[in-house]
């Protein structure tokens, strides 16, 4: 067994257990590979530590072995209406456009459970991408949870990544396949924001998926110059003018502004489910 990471004690025993009980060299190799990937990524976010990693590995291991029912999606948050299910990944380390004002980082800085939960999701996703038999299992678990909660709690929207982003092309593919499978359930829509994907990919997905919308967090000018989709009135006004000139439909989000005090995100405003150019004011 080769590891590039310095395995903490409890993880060594998990690997031993995997070696003896799983009886499957490919399984063990893929798990170690994912742990290495995630551990190396984790080192880029100063708020994560080795205790978070240990906790996330233990939880991921329980899910993989089927020891524990795991809830992947939480309903609503301070900003979003309670009819929204949210799936999160760690901020910064899955997002190459990490911003100084990253609000998703706030919760990670404060709450250990949040760090562990997001890291556990990343471990499981990375393992699924490395180990095909688990890929379908994880997709089915997510689909079943979405269906169950949407039926029972009348939830109709899935928000991918109130923190995190598509850190790999295959990870995007993973969710696109889920969206295709959910397409027949008319009342469930998925949406997300991204800095990781290029314009062509986003446009292709938005044109080809009725139930999946991606909002651009980076707006590209005809010259190729890129603008972060977040700023003061003047800055956002200029981006709006540029889009208008090109005949591109846009919406300016007023959530959190005085003028938008009655706006309920995913309640009375659902622009992010349909429009790829929703512009965001700093507030
Ligand atoms: S535009 Fe509407 S749906 Fe999008 S973030 Fe703002 S309030 Fe929410």
Secondary-structure blueprint of this entry?
Elements: H1 9-22, H2 25-42, H3 50-64, E1 74-75, E2 84-87, H4 104-110, H5 112-130, H6 132-153, E3 157-160, H7 169-182, E4 189-194, H8 199-208, E5 212-216, E6 218-220, E7 226-228, H9 233-245, E8 251-253, E9 278-280
Parallel strand pairs: 2-3, 3-4, 4-5, 8-9
Antiparallel strand pairs: 1-2, 6-7
Helix pairs in contact: 1-2, 2-5, 3-5, 4-5, 5-6, 6-7
This protein binds iron/sulfur cluster.
Characterization of the model:
The model has no long low-confidence stretch (mean pLDDT 87). The protein contains 9 helices and 9 strands. With 283 residues, the chain is α/β, with parallel strands linked by helices. The strands form 3 sheets. The chain has a 5-stranded mixed β-sheet with strand order 1-2-3-4-5. A two-stranded antiparallel sheet has the order 6-7. Strands 8-9 form a two-stranded parallel ribbon. It has 2 domains: 9-205, no CATH class; 217-283, no CATH class. Residues 251, 253, 255, 263, 265-266, 269-272, 278 line the site of iron/sulfur cluster.
């Amino acid at each position: 067994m080769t590891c590039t990471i310095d395995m903490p004690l409890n993880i060594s025993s998990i690997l031993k257990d995997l070696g003896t009980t799983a009886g499957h060299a490919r399984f063990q190799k893929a798990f170690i590979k994912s742990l290495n990937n995630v551990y190396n990524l984790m080192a880029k976010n100063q708020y994560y530590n080795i205790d978070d990693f240990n906790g996330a590995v233990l939880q991921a291991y329980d899910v993989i072995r089927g020891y524990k029912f795991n809830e992947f999606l939480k309903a609503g948050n301070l900003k979003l209406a309670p009819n929204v299910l949210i799936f999160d990944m760690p901020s910064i380390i899955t997002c190459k456009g990490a911003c100084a004002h990253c609000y998703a980082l706030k919760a990670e800085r404060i709450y250990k459970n949040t760090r562990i939960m997001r890291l556990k999701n990343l471990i499981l996703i990375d393992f699924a991408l490395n180990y095909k038999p688990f890929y379908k299992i994880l997709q089915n678990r997510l689909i079943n949870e979405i269906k169950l909660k949407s039926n029972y709690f009348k939830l109709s929207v899935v928000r991918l990544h109130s923190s995190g982003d598509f850190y790999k092309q295959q990870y995007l593919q993973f969710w696109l396949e889920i969206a295709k499978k959910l397409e027949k359930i008319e009342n469930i829509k998925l949406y997300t924001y991204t800095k990781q994907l290029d314009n062509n990919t986003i446009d292709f997905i938005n044109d080809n998926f009725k139930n999946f919308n991606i909002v651009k967090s980076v707006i590209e000018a005809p010259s190729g110059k890129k603008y972060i989709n977040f700023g003061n009135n003047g800055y956002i006004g200029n981006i709006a003018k540029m889009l208008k000139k090109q005949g591109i439909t846009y919406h300016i989000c007023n959530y959190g502004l005085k003028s938008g005090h009655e706006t309920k995100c995913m309640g009375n405003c659902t622009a992010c489910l349909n429009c790829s150019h929703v512009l965001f004011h700093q507030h």
